[in-house]
Amino acid sequence: MQNNNNIATTNPKNASSISIALVANVIRPKAIRLKAVANHPTVVALKCNTSVQEASFRMDKESIEISEGNSEPSILHRPIAHVVSSLTILQKFAYEEHQQILVDARSLPQELYQVNCKQSTLNLHRSLSPSSNTKQRHYSSNYVNDSKKTEDKKSSDGYKWRKYGQKRVKKGEFPRAYYRCVHPACPVKKTVEISKDGEIAEIIYRGDHNHPKPSSKSRDKAFNLDRNGSTHEKWMQKFNLDGNDSHIDIPTVSASFITDGREKATESVTISQKRKNDDKLGDSTVATKSTAVPKLMSSIDDSHEANDGYSWQKYGKKVIKGNPYPRNYYRCSDGKCSARKRVQRVSDDPRSFITIYEGKHHH
DNA sequence: AGCCTTTGACCAGCG
DNA sequence: TCGCTGGTCAAAGGC
């Protein structure tokens, strides 16, 4: 199978690069039918009229490959309908989100930019990981909520939709809701079938968007800059950041997300994983052994620095060149524990902290 | 006030 | 031509 498309993106600061090799010979369909059922996350079924293809996603260190799994011939025409598993679409969405974050992060200070890129890359890996099944449920519920909450208008596919009709079809079966893209002159429509239990039974997309996705500033907020916590939490749910990955190893480096002074989630990555990211992302000015995530709080004082569920003892302080705020060093107050952290205000935004965790709590 | 969803009516395609 | 089915319209009401 020859590469049909090669999309390589490199951000302007050389901090991260990721390439996608679209190996499958896919012609964009007029309609995409999205089934809510995906038994195996690594296998997707592509139905184009009567032909069936199986494709699998493989996530390598620096590339995502979609490779064909059987001998079906290439598609030589635009199919009328395109049936894929929801996970396929979600993986596509995850990659597009990742791309958008990289673009949006360009306007951030170098340090924040690198942190964002690093975290986004990690999230993308998670999103494409075969073990992450719960994302599907989350996305589904978002679609259900499309008609309930204005804030969910921009659904998980990144576009804004307006419902223009609903009808019960196939007597006794699921009601079908009709949406059109709210962007002026955009011809795209989607039809959503909702099962009895409120889950999405089927989503059918028609047409191609003739405009870019709406601004992802909200995603930016969700990732780092949100101060009310709600969208941040959605983000955390979206990427299933529950720290329960089976590949966690020791020693670990932790990155905590704190909003309004409360820890929302903590995730751990292995040093080897982190090195992979570091290799891809280049040297970070933040740390060489740690993953750092800025913490944003609405009204913070230094007492919040320790409000992460552990008791910390301050053991040092250092004035950093170019930053009016000193960096404080803490060690876990449990004498046997080797966990440490460094906390520093962001010079550009004194309400924000960058906290770097080292080591792991053993208690 | 403006945007949105709801819902019955209308229309087109098809057998 | 008729009836069925599915997609769209648009008025009304809600948020």
From TrEMBL:
<dbReference type="Pfam" id="PF03106">
    <property type="entry name" value="WRKY"/>
</dbReference>
<feature type="domain" description="WRKY">
    <location>
        <begin position="301"/>
        <end position="363"/>
    </location>
</feature>
<keyword id="KW-0804">Transcription</keyword>
<keyword id="KW-0238">DNA-binding</keyword>
<dbReference type="GO" id="GO:0043565">
    <property type="term" value="F:sequence-specific DNA binding"/>
</dbReference>
<keyword id="KW-0805">Transcription regulation</keyword>
<feature type="region of interest" description="Disordered">
    <location>
        <begin position="206"/>
        <end position="225"/>
    </location>
</feature>
<dbReference type="InterPro" id="IPR044810">
    <property type="entry name" value="WRKY_plant"/>
</dbReference>
<feature type="domain" description="WRKY">
    <location>
        <begin position="150"/>
        <end position="214"/>
    </location>
</feature>
<dbReference type="GO" id="GO:0003700">
    <property type="term" value="F:DNA-binding transcription factor activity"/>
</dbReference>
<keyword id="KW-0677">Repeat</keyword>
<feature type="compositionally biased region" description="Basic and acidic residues">
    <location>
        <begin position="146"/>
        <end position="158"/>
    </location>
</feature>
<feature type="compositionally biased region" description="Polar residues">
    <location>
        <begin position="125"/>
        <end position="145"/>
    </location>
</feature>
<dbReference type="GO" id="GO:0005634">
    <property type="term" value="C:nucleus"/>
</dbReference>
<feature type="region of interest" description="Disordered">
    <location>
        <begin position="125"/>
        <end position="158"/>
    </location>
</feature>
<dbReference type="InterPro" id="IPR036576">
    <property type="entry name" value="WRKY_dom_sf"/>
</dbReference>
<keyword id="KW-0539">Nucleus</keyword>
<protein>
    <submittedName>
        <fullName>WRKY transcription factor 3</fullName>
    </submittedName>
</protein>
<dbReference type="InterPro" id="IPR003657">
    <property type="entry name" value="WRKY_dom"/>
</dbReference>
